[in-house]
Amino acid sequence: MTATLDESTVRPATGSAVRLAGVHKTFGAVTALRGVDLDVAPGEFVCLLGASGCGKTTLLNIIAGLDEPSAGELELSSGRPAVMFQEAALMPWLTAAANVELPLRLAGVSRKERKHRTVELLDLVRLSGVGGKRPHELSGGMRQRVALARALASALHTGNDTAGSSAPSLLLMDEPFSALDAITRDVLQAELLRVWRSTGAAVVFVTHDVREAVRLGQRVVLLSSRPGRVVEEWQVGDLPAAEEAETVAVINERLREVISSHAAA
Ligand SMILES: Nc1ncnc2c1ncn2[C@@H]1O[C@H](COP(=O)(O)OP(=O)(O)OP(=O)(O)O)[C@@H](O)[C@H]1O
């Protein structure tokens, strides 16, 4: 079930794109999150890493306003963040361009401005030639690019819209590339980094792939196995290539420890 966040638990963030303080979430007898503290700076790229079932999606849903915390506080600096899921979830009856345009249409952006921004965004994800095609005519990787352009349309619009043009935007991504083959994933990871650098949006990217987290993130945040809470984090932005493999090995080892301590508990 989805719920709308209570106004009292969501406040505009001061200086952060998103800030969570002591966020708990229970589903009946199941405690999914226990006291999560997380602060994401405007324009920062943070990867949330954790074992299956540790509460990553729950956390993202709470930030997205699709679910509400049982306790704790959430602060957001922009309006509702844009979300991109594992499956592109495009409207099958709309063309790629119309899918990208949809959040702008719903936000009441003028037709001329919508058309202009849609062309720009399709160009940004290198899909300028296929705006007129419908989702079933596109490959899985192309559909995820359309989903990325649509999420950006929504994120950038919200960012511009709420507190003036300086309001940072926030993009939430829940394992968006995990259903793709390795080569397409590799290409889209590079594309995402390029797009992130050119838009300045903050990104919270959920993955259980350590290599992906280290490649994409400026910071990797490790959640414990259920109930999830932040156990450790690493600054991994601009790592020299020689240190990347070692960092992946260190984080993998820590992830294994977290999983086995949970299994032994
Ligand atoms: N709506 C719900 N009702 C009951 N339990 C739920 C609900 N949503 C999540 N859970 C439980 O909360 C825990 C965390 O789930 P969540 O989907 O957030 O984990 P995750 O880390 O994203 O997992 P994965 O990596 O496998 O997608 C799980 O034990 C799950 O069964």
From TrEMBL:
Residues 18-252 form the ABC transporter domain. PROSITE patterns: ABC_TRANSPORTER_1 (PS00211), ABC_TRANSPORTER_2 (PS50893). GO terms for molecular function: ATP binding; ATP hydrolysis activity. InterPro entries: AAA+_ATPase (IPR003593), ABC_transporter-like_ATP-bd (IPR003439), ABC_transporter-like_CS (IPR017871), ABC_transporter_ATP-bind (IPR050166), P-loop_NTPase (IPR027417). The keyword Nucleotide-binding applies. Pfam families: ABC_tran. The keyword Membrane does not apply. Keywords: ATP-binding, Nucleotide-binding, Transport. This is ABC transporter ATP-binding protein.
